[in-house]
Design a protein that fits this description.
D-Maltodextrin-Binding Protein, domain 2, 9-stranded mixed β-sheet, 2 domains, 9 helices, globular, alpha/beta
Length: 261
């Protein structure tokens, strides 16, 4: 009888010890998650001057904005690249914390992610070879070969203005723009902020024509469940705008403030 009592007591003590250990492990894991020190943010790395690789290092406006936001949040900035066509899937799979990659806010994307406040505004623009004279506006695009980046919002604009078999998809805006002087493409639809610096540099002989086809808000994407991060990013964004950090970064890359305010 006494033996059975002692056995029962030992079993009970073992169960209590197991429960306490399990509770301690759970609390430790929650603490580790809450004390996250790194802020990982993704981009394609193919969208100069916003995000691109120079000597193996990520550079550009998006990269520097991410670093400024991380600093305000007291975190270490870790920019990473991911193919654009799967960048939202990567976010949902928790490969990184956010997307700071010049992502246009659309109703369709809002179904999958939450967006911060706008961190810059731009618009879709038609670009053609510098010596091209037969395209002066969107009305002249019918039947013309138009280059766009894969999985971008510019593809829909191209389809609205030319035939489906005339829309050519590229991995990079720069590659598409380089095909304009060669005659492989008649036009490219991409962001103003991509084409304008290239025109200024003169590296590719192109020009912009017509009015912008759209006015777009660009924002930072986070997972639907990451409400706390969304609030932190909006607060940090407000701070870098107020203290002049945003304007300094913008002027470095574009010689103007691209926030649109």
């Amino acid at each position: 009888m006494k033996k059975n009592v002692w056995v029962g007591l030992l079993v009970s003590l073992s169960l209590v010890s197991f429960i306490l250990t399990a509770c301690g492990s759970s609390e430790k894991s929650a603490g580790t998650s809450a004390d996250k020190k790194e802020f990982q943010y993704a981009m394609s790395g193919l969208y100069k001057p916003f995000n691109f690789k120079e000597n193996g290092k990520l550079e550009g406006f998006d990269v520097e904005i991410g670093k400024a936001l991380a600093e305000k949040m007291g975190m270490k900035a870790v920019p990473v690249t991911n193919p654009w066509e799967t960048i939202i899937q990567g976010l949902q799979a928790k490969k990184y914390d956010a997307i700071i990659g010049s992502m246009t806010v659309t109703d369709e994307r809002k179904k999958s992610v939450n967006f911060t406040n706008t961190y810059y505004q731009s618009g879709a623009q038609i670009f053609v070879a510098e010596n091209k004279q037969d395209i002066k506006s969107a009305a002249d695009l019918k039947g013309k070969r138009i280059g766009v980046v894969k999985a971008s919002s510019y593809k829909e604009l191209a389809l609205q203005n030319t035939d489906k078999d005339k829309v050519v998809e590229y991995d990079s805006d720069i590659t598409a723009l380089m095909d304009l002087p060669t005659g492989r493409l008649d036009a490219v639809i991409t962001d103003q902020m991509v084409g304008f610096p290239i025109i200024k540099e003169g590296a590719i002989k192109i020009k912009d024509v017509g009015e912008p086809l759209s006015q777009d808000d660009q924002a930072i994407a986070v997972r639907k469940e990451d409400k706390e991060l969304l609030d932190k990013l909006n607060k940090a964004l407000e701070e870098i705008i107020k203290d002049g950090t945003y304007e300094r970064i913008s002027n470095k890359w574009f010689n103007r403030n691209i926030l649109g305010e």
